[in-house]
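Morning F.,

Quick status update on the modeling queue. The single chain you submitted on Monday has been processed. Sequence for confirmation:
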Amino acid sequence: MASKLTPAQRVALARTLVMKPRILLLDEPLSALDGVIKESIKDRIKTIAREYHLTTIIVTHDPEEALTLSDRVLIIDQGSISQYARPDEIVHQPRNDFVRKFILRQLEIKRGNIYALFGDRPQLAGEAV
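Structure tokens below.
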């Protein structure tokens, strides 16, 4: 799994883990990665956090990353906490318009972009035409 990391990333991770931290802070760790590598690194982050019993704080502007990497998500708007909750609570019970727009709207835009590139919504097996 470590072979998916660049040499510089492996050194940085080794330096961090040798100190036996209790908290790991990652600032936009997936921002410059393509989709396949991004998914691999997401899995690796989860594995490292679990194996080393680390509280991991990930700073990201990507709602998909926040929701799929986290047990809890903290959404900040202009320096104030808009919502702190489990990912499923944020998706199903956004506390305010900012959360709704920031998280849900961005996910809708991603879905819309995919449909715009590849055509209409896919037909599900057994679904009427």
